[in-house]
Design brief:
11 strands, Purple Acid Phosphatase, chain A, domain 2, alpha/beta, 6-stranded mixed β-sheet, 247 residues, 5-stranded mixed β-sheet
Length: 247
């Protein structure tokens, strides 16, 4: 039987959206024993300030993933909202933390996986912020603060992000095509899957490398807001699918 691999991203789980949490639980239950692996490509949670903060939401999610992992391989990638997700929580989920870019080898396909924010090079201010918070020293100093201090930072950062994004053009917050092609050339691949931009679509394009013109595919996973979006990789296909959220 051909392998079936699922990919999701940008759930942005939070207490104020129980419908999204319910949709994740349903998705895991519906696909239990029906796929070989599940990849979560970042922004599982709306905010993550460290593995030492526990809540009913985080416990419910980790328990559901742990149960799912008993029969299916489970992989997590950092997003721009949950880049502090650590091995302690990943272990509770029964999964493995992977770094981007990650090459998904299925036997018949070879696919580049990233969250997607690394491709948004036109958003200069965000890229500077990203470089800062991804540094090990910054993360160690941040995690050394109290939970309340970290919560306050997260609240302020979210507020500033919303204000900044309101003044940015749509194109600035999308991926840069040159960055997409550069990554594909470096990886020597022609297929990419990512999230982050909240613009679900499957893009077909060509790019040049080593004197050759190659046909490429870029699949963008959608955010779980009005629909449940996921990618499905089978023997020789990559499909973008959607389902209604749970009420």
């Amino acid at each position: 039987m051909p392998s079936r691999i699922l990919l999701i991203s940008d759930l942005h789980l939070e207490e104020s959206r129980p419908d999204i949490t319910a949709s994740l639980l349903r998705f895991l239950e519906d696909n239990r024993d029906r796929c070989d692996a599940l990849y979560v490509l970042g922004d599982l949670f709306e905010v993550w300030i460290g593995d030492d903060e526990s809540s009913e939401l985080t416990q419910t999610v980790s328990a559901a993933f742990k149960d799912f992992s008993q029969t299916t391989q489970l992989f997590f990638m950092h997003g721009n909202r949950d880049f502090l997700l650590g091995n302690d929580y990943i272990k509770l989920c029964g999964g493995k933390l992977i770094q981007e870019p990650y090459i998904l080898e299925t036997g018949s396909q070879s696919i580049v996986l990233v969250h997607g924010d690394c491709l948004c090079s036109d958003d200069v201010d965000y890229m500077k912020f990203r470089d800062m918070v991804r540094q090990q020293q910054w993360q160690q100093e941040f995690l050394g603060q109290t939970l309340e201090q970290r919560r306050e930072f997260a609240r302020e950062a979210r507020k500033q992000s919303q204000l900044a994004n309101a003044n940015k053009t749509s194109s600035i917050m999308d991926v840069n095509q040159d960055e997409v092609e550069k990554l594909l050339r470096t990886a020597a691949k022609t297929t990419m899957i990512h999230g982050h931009t909240h613009r679900p679509a499957s893009h077909q394009f060509t790019f040049d490398t080593d004197g050759h013109t190659l046909q490429a595919t870029r699949v963008v996973l959608g955010d779980w807001d009005k629909f449940l979006w996921y990618g499905e990789v089978s023997y020789d296909t990559v499909e973008l699918k959607q389902l209604p959220l749970s009420s």
